[in-house]
Amino acid sequence: MIGSFKKHYPEYLMEAAELGIFMISAGVFVSLIEYDGSIVKQLIPNSQLRLLLIGMMMGLTAVLLINSKFGKRSGAHMNPALTLTFYRLGKIKFWDTMFYVLFQFIGGTVGVYIVFVIFGNAFTNPPVNFVVTIPMNDSIATPFFAEVIMSFILMAMVLFTTNKVSLAKYTGLIAGIMLAIFISFEAPISGMSINPARSFASAFPSNIWTAFWIYLTAPPIGMLLAAQLYISIKGKKNIICAKLNHDNKVRCIFNCGYKDSIKA
């Protein structure tokens, strides 16, 4: 444990920073667009158009983070469900997995607190409400399965693109587009999380834990199912690395086969 931390703590901190920046972006854009006193809300009275705008901003944020220097080095997981899935696939060692997950939770929560300090009531009061993820109706089954399906689709895309050299460079862009679509059209159903650390980051400071179990369980289930599908089709040996954007000029701490795949 101590050895892993000493060797790989820069990557752990990068994971924290990445999700922290993502949550800052989410908090800032949602506050600017959805706060009752917002000029944007007055100019765009249609709630679906505002949600589409938020989706585009968050998708762009994801693309920039995945393709950033930090993202290329840490792998830009920003999501415990994704990290645990790569552990299941044998690409991440145990203590790296544990520290990645821990720092993702810490980074996301710190990001939410930063927005709270800057925006105050505009961020904490409804309708922004700490950008918490909660089901938008009384149903539990529908939001749960929606989160499972979105997580499954996202992880399947990551595996089928990152493990094909010709497609790997587009993984970040596709992930950003998918995130924008999910937020724009699915958020009214489940709140759109697909990330336990993202949901915890909002729930902890707000003390709003409504149906939190959905966001804690559904994303790992969906992503693990996608991993199992990939293994059944392609085989476990064909999984190259756990990075969403691989750059062989920077360190890789995973069980990586990237250089071998390039030679092949």
Shape: globular
The CATH topology turns out to be: Glycerol uptake facilitator protein
- Biggest beta sheet summary: none
Architecture (CATH level 2) name: Up-down Bundle
| The first-level CATH class name | Mainly Alpha
Count of distinct strands: 0
Q: Please, how many domains?
A: 1
Radius of gyration, whole Å? 18 Å
What is the first-to-last residue Cα distance? 34 Å
Unreliable spans:
none
SSE ordering: HHHHHHHHHHHHH
Helix content: over 70%
CATH superfamily: Glycerol uptake facilitator protein
Structure classification: mainly alpha
Percentage of residues in DSSP E strands: under 5%
- Average pLDDT metric: 94
Please count the helical segments: 13
Describe what you observe in this structure:
With 264 residues, the protein is mainly α. The chain has a single domain, classed as Glycerol uptake facilitator protein (Up-down Bundle). The chain has 13 helices and no strands. The longest helix is centred in the N-terminal third of the chain and has 33 residues, at 2-34. The chain is globular.
Annotation keywords:
264 residues, mainly alpha, Glycerol uptake facilitator protein, 13 helices, 72% helix
Topology readout:
Layout: H1 2-34, H2 39-43, H3 47-66, H4 69-74, H5 80-88, H6 94-119, H7 121-124, H8 141-162, H9 165-168, H10 171-190, H11 196-206, H12 212-234, H13 258-263
Helix pairs in contact: 1-3, 1-6, 3-10, 5-6, 5-12, 6-11, 8-10, 8-12, 11-12
Task: Describe, in short, the structure shown.
With 264 residues, this protein is an all-alpha fold. It is built from 13 helices and no strands. The protein has a single domain (8-263), classed as Up-down Bundle (Glycerol uptake facilitator protein).
